[in-house]
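Standup notes, protein team

Yesterday: finished cleaning the Acanthocheilonema viteae set.
Today: Peptidase M12B domain-containing protein structure.
Blockers: none.

Input for Peptidase M12B domain-containing protein:
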Amino acid sequence: YDLYHNKIRTLAGYAPVNGMCTEKKSCTISEGLDFSAVFITAHEIGHNFGMKHDSENGCDESCCIMSSSIGTGRTLWSSCSARELNHFITELDKNGIGENCLRTSNIRYKRMPKILSGQMYTLDEQCVLFHGTCWKHEIRHGEHINDVCKMIWCSNGEGVIRSTHPALEYSYCGYRMWCIEGQCKPAIPEIAIPRHGGWSDWMVSGRGSCVTECVPCQINGQLRVRRSIRTCDNPYPNNGGSYCIGDDTRGIRCQENVSLLY
């Protein structure tokens, strides 16, 4: 199924409303390029279970998972979604659909270990996975670290700041605090151990690098230099651990002769 067949490039998922337990509509399609897919998939499954967009059922359009778009703080289900889910399950056998497929599965599911996703992927890593190699978490002016539970903002180090998605569950949001159900709450003390950052190797310009090529100097008598950088991702600091000490940028001389530009 081509999500972009109607040329609407912002469409990230599709699901038939009330499709669960029907022969041809018990399915969802979700775009999965990064962790925002978690919220997209939950949204589409909600449709399959009879949930409408919150703007269509009397609930706040901007509050919750069933908003028509991903946005700040939309990590929980609205009361309207809960009501629609309860109604769908109650009426499942009365709509001529037949046997309730939610009651007939004989599949034995393994109990999965609890995954602390926000501890597996730091805020910086979540930025990298969403925007690319050169991006890292940044706190916008007027905001605080606990605001990441509503939305992570990322910077490319060149003055560009963009949003991603609400932080993953158990992401660091303050001293001994984690994002849990969209809010910054006390963490598990024995697990929330600060991890200090470590430097990567120095990188110079090239494919996959955040560094630009040599640029001719504009001052007479100056040498041309190439910028070399290192990143604090070996490992990334987490749970309040200290950032790497030292400079992250240095200059490497490109050639012996000096520029003659004026």
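Follow-up from PR in the comments: Residues 13-95 form a domain with the Collagenase (Catalytic Domain) fold (CATH 3.40.390.10).
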